[in-house]
Amino acid sequence: MGKLQDVDRSDRHDGAGDRPPAAMDGDAEARLRLAQDPGTTHLTLIDLAADPSPVVRRAVAARADAPAQALRPLTRDRDREVREAVARNPATSIANLLRLVRDADRWVRWAVAGNPACDASVRRAMAQTADKELRGLLAESRDLEPELAARLVDDVSPEVRERLAAHTHDSDVMTTLLADRTARVRKGLARNPRTTAEHRRALAQDPVPDVRAALVSAVALDEADLRPLVEDRSAQVRMAVATSELVPAHLRQALTDDPEELVADAARQFRPGAATSPVVRAPRVGHRTAGSGRGRAGDAPR
User: What per-residue confidence (pLDDT) applies to 18?
Assistant: First the structure.
């Protein structure tokens, strides 16, 4: 087994360095089993972090009990999935998360956003990145500091502001975004279930039909705010009223004689539970779905 004085040498490992002799005994499958074995010692995990097989190194990178001496060199591993596993690992140090949030590969950066070990310093680094998606992931964070929320309110990307609007818990941030000139941002706010009655009243009078329709579909409104929407000038909004499970039956009934036949049919045929209730989507934390493609290891920040 490698000795502690060998750690600095393995720290410089990029996936192609010298192999620690003990950890290299046996075939790759045997070393993988060793890397996954809960009983494997920290010294052995440090050796396995320099294994020639990326599958073995990924197994080490994913271990929540991996020692810092094993994870540190893996933040610079040539295999992107190894670095991504370190980025997700709650045992990864703040210093290493700060390194990974600046990684050249977007999937690695995005994985940092879902790491429960992220602290204010990591979130500040995310807010300063040129990566729009990473800032969007930050905007969806429940633990977002007020000063970072204030920064994202003015983000150059409407998508980032929309995601902040849909997920923020801060009433002051909601009030600011209510005046955003981009309709998609106000639409995001309309889908936020944490808005106040005052916010909802203002959104119910928004000049853009998309915003009013999103509001009716996403949250329960006071009847005083709903009644004008039953007679809304936009058929899109009246359709949202006709199909929303959050609208009282007696208000929906008024639409059974709507001049737009599609709206009237929707109101007549409505059955509770038949439609999929809209929900605010969960924070995206960079998980790749099957067939999504991996892109290039050197993806530039978006």
Answer: 41
How far is Cα 173 from Cα 195, in angstroms, rounded to an integer? 10
Whether the Cβ atoms of residue 161 and residue 155 lie closer than 8 Å to each other: yes
Average pLDDT, 10 consecutive residues per value, the chain (302 residues): 35 41 68 96 96 97 96 97 98 97 97 95 96 97 92 97 97 97 98 97 98 97 96 97 96 96 96 58 45 43 38
Residue 213 token pair: 């329709």
Cα within 13 Å of Cα(206), Cβ side: 29
293: left (phi over 0), alpha (psi -120 to 50) or beta: left
Q: How far apart are CA 192 and CA 280, in angstroms?
A: 7
Say how far apart CA 123 and CA 17 lie, in whole Å: 33
Contacts of 237 (CB under 8 A, 6+ apart): 209, 212, 213, 216, 229
- Residue 290, CB-side half-sphere exposure with 13 Å CA sphere: 0
For residue 180, CA distances in Å to 158, 171, 172 come to 9, 15, 13
Q: What is the DSSP letter of 76?
A: T
- Stated pTM of the model: 0.78
| Contacts of residue 207, Cβ cutoff 8 Å, sequence gap at least 6 | none
For 282, other C-beta atoms within 10 Å of its C-beta total 8
Give the 3-state secondary structure of residue 106.
helix
